Give the backbone structure.
Amino acid sequence: MEPQRSPLLEVRGNIELKRPLVKAPSRLPLPGTRFKRGPDQMEDALEPEKKRTRGLNTVTKIATSHPRPPALTVRPQTQSQTTAPKVPKKTGPHCSTAIGTVLKNQKPGPAVPAQKPGAAAPPTLGGKKPTKRPAWDLKGQLCDLNAELKCCRERTQTLNQENQQLQDQLKEAQQQARALGAECRTLEGELARVQAQAEQGQQELGNLRARVLELEEQLGTQQGLVQELQKEQVGLQEERRGLAARLEEQERRLQASEVALSGSQAEVASLRQEADTQAALLVEQGERLHGLEMERRRLHNQLQELKGNIRVFCRVRPVLPGEPTPSPGFLLFPSGPGGSSDPPTRLSVSRSDERRGTLSGTPAPTTRHDFSFDRVFPPGSGQDQVFEEIAMLVQSALDGYPVCIFAYGQTGSGKTFTMEGGPGGDPQAEGLIPRALRHLFSVAQELGGQGWTYSFVASYVEIYNETVRDLLATGTRKGQSSECEIRRAGPGSEELTVTNARYVPVSCEKEVEALLQLARQNRAVARTSQNERSSRSHSVFQLQISGEHAGRGLQCAAPLSLVDLAGSERLDPGLALGPGERERLRETQAINSSLSTLGLVIMALSNKESHVPYRNSKLTYLLQNSLGGSAKMLMFVNISPLEENVSESLNSLRFASKVNQCVIGTAQANRK
Ligand code: ADP
Ligand code: MG
């Protein structure tokens, strides 16, 4: 493909092409100069060869040589007149011949005498003649004149011819000049075009120069950039080397790791195999564990049944500071058949019959009352020891057996201490309720490992004078004795619920502690209006336990009830009945009625009677699901160590003994 030529180059090419014209003899004007030559010069410039053959040159030769007739120059002065007329004849033809020859040959003849003008004098009449005819020789003069005239005429003729020729040539030259003029205009046009092209070229050149500058600038920038990039490249190369070294290191490590990995993979494979075996074993163990758990529950229940579904524990509180020390032997704790190592189960109360002694004047005889219970706790027994004995029973609640624990006894015998604990938050003095709940939470967590999930919902109410009040009431209801009703949870439902009472889900000890604290506050508020009301009311803490084994589709639910009963003391029948005492009597009657109803319910259950008088008191009605056939019951009979309370202590012990004789039918776990 031919590269595009710039207009400037084109112009130069054109100029080069025409250069021979400039070198021609006629000389074309230099570029930029204007034509100032004549047509002949133009002709010379255009047709140098033609010029040489043209007559114009010849004319010039003729004009310049303009020879005189040789006869005039060579004729001797002594020549006669007779020969004189011949001279023109000789010169004439010679002259015309010479001209003719010149015209004919069209080239300068070297033999033409005109080339040596100084050699012959011009044959003019007025000129100085070398020889002068004598004045008398008129004829001769005439002859000369004629000859000269003739010669002149010939010359005139020749000149006319010559003139004619010249005119022709002039015409031709004019034509040529016109042609040249046209050509000149064409060339001028061409020149103008070329100049325009040149200007355009210049402009383009300028543009190109600007572009070149721009490009140079760009080049500079690019070079700077290149330098920067080179620097960067150097940096990157450094980095690359570093990375390559690191890569090598990593590759080495990778190889080592791969080796280790392949080793580990083999190990993993063997471990997986082992894990599979272990998993299979685990499943098997899980199955076994579940079986064992169910077996444990069964055996546990059997054990509890063997211990009795109704158990009675007797607890004697210690003598408090400031209280009279009882006489020795007032309360005795005889050892069991296994000796002192056996936990005590018996209690002897010695009561002196002061009336008989006074009457006979002899020392008052003492009557010994022996009682036997499932367990007897002497005054020094700690809360932990007591709880240890009931922990297994609490466990039964988790297994789905309703459990009910009562604290029975006269006011001040230690019921509240047993159930809730001593004052001051001493952990050692913690009662059964916080201990039982802590135990439940921890066992539930353990059972969680076997797939069991448990939830606990607590409620705490008091029953005073056959009215139920929520001890967990908060806000505006706090301290108000807004009455609550015991209702079935739903139509046909066995479950009982207390209206207006809070049922609080609990999952940790702290929550339980907060609830007990709230109950204490609520009791304290009530105490301001009715003195020692807490002693005259039953406090019922209930925990609804729900367990589920999702994997096996097992569910169990049972209530755990911890009841701090109202003081069991009776009113002294000998006391005069004032208005306050009347109120107290009504309270006492209500308490006695509910306590005796409790006894009756237990009896009825024990005797498997068709009618169990649950409805005879709010307490038994509320607790009906925690008593009965499938329930496990424990009664603490709390005894005061004081001799002055012996009568009430004996009453309590007798009531407890009756309960202890009861056996409630085989308990069934509430399984679904
Ligand atoms: P109740 O609730 O039966 O009326 P309390 O539980 O209030 O009796 O006990 C009366 C007093 O005896 C309280 O001051 C209590 O701290 C104290 N008390 C009861 N039992 C014990 C015990 N086992 N150890 C120490 N103090 C006790
Ligand atoms: Mg109390």
Notes: The first helix runs from residue 7 to 23.
